[in-house]
Specification:
Layout lengths: L3 E2 L4 H13 L11 E7 L3 E3 L3 E10 L7 E13 L5 E3 L20 E3 L2 E8 L12 E10 L3 E9 L10 E5 L3 E2 L1 E2 L1 E5 L1 E7 L8 E7 L3 E7 L7 E7 L8 E2 L9 E6 L5 E7 L2
Parallel strand pairs: 2-14, 3-15
Antiparallel strand pairs: 1-12, 2-4, 4-9, 5-8, 5-10, 5-11, 6-9, 7-8, 10-15, 11-13, 16-17, 17-20, 18-19, 18-21
């Protein structure tokens, strides 16, 4: 027996999904129909800092003309090293999905992993067809120096759910199944706790209204340092002094302005 999706209209999806979840019927199997990708807003953070991990899905190019949308999804989010980074799963969001509490879940934590995350796209026409669609976003906090790899796989642990992706064909017919996770990984590097720098300023007046300033600051190992200035404390953009990065630990500037404020900006190389 096969389960067929008879209509792609959103009002029909809820009953159809409940039927699919309840049945153990074979659907149309074959090559994976959805490609899963993921990214970090930044893949290098200091211990104690945070970034955001985002997971996307899109129907494979060959099937986009003949499909309506990604109908439902069901995945696990895996973290290879929970001592280095922690997914803040209580803040996990699925903003593009329907989030109907009867047929969705933010999953369950198991050690450093989050298993059994699922939802639907009943109210999002064309979901994952022309452009990739966001499945989930979760903050990630760095705990200690090291590396951790985040991966996504087909969902596990939820009774009655057996398919990771169900794609509705255009005009009805057998549902399409399966996700490709070969691109669904992202590595995060966590550095030692952010280095704190306090700069000092030595001022010497020169003839002709000139000022000689020596700006000194400790160096953070392995980082780039940029000395920046602005002439008003507020409502003005910080500007970088020439010849950066300034990794010598001191910088001399000569100017004739009445006042100027300085700071040291630290960035990874």
């Amino acid at each position: 027996m096969k389960t067929r999706i008879a209509s792609s209209r959103p009002r029909c999806f809820l009953n159809l999904l409940l039927l699919i979840v309840a049945m153990v019927a074979p659907l149309r199997l074959g090559a994976q129909v959805v490609t899963v990708t993921m990214s970090l807003d930044t893949n290098r953070i200091a211990a104690g800092a945070s970034t955001t991990l985002r997971v996307y899905a899109q129907i494979v190019p060959a099937l986009r003309p003949s499909t309506d949308r990604i109908f439902s999804w069901y995945v696990d989010l895996l973290n290879s090293n929970g001592t280095v980074a922690r997914g803040v799963y209580e803040s996990l969001q699925k903003t593009a999905s329907d989030n109907d509490p009867r047929i969705s879940s933010a999953g369950t934590s198991q050690e450093a992993n989050r298993r059994g995350i699922y939802d639907t796209f009943m109210n999002l026409p064309d979901a994952g067809r022309q452009t990739r669609v966001l499945l989930l976003a979760v903050p990630v906090t760095g705990l200690a120096a090291g590396r951790s790899t985040f991966r996504v796989q087909a969902g596990t642990g939820v009774a009655g759910l057996g398919h990771d992706f169900i794609v509705a064909p255009a005009g009805g017919g057998d549902a399409l199944l399966g996700g490709d996770y070969s691109l669904a990984s992202a590595e995060l590097e966590v550095l030692e706790e952010a280095c704190r720098v306090q700069a000092t300023l030595a001022y010497t007046p020169l003839p002709g209204g000139q000022n000689r300033l020596v700006i000194s600051y400790p160096l953070c190992p392995g980082q780039n340092h940029f000395v920046e200035f602005r002439n008003r404390l507020a409502l003005e953009t910080w500007q970088t002094l020439p010849n950066g990065p300034h990794n010598s630990g001191s910088l001399i500037e000569t100017n004739s302005v009445a006042q100027r404020f300085y700071r040291v900006r630290i960035t990874p190389p």
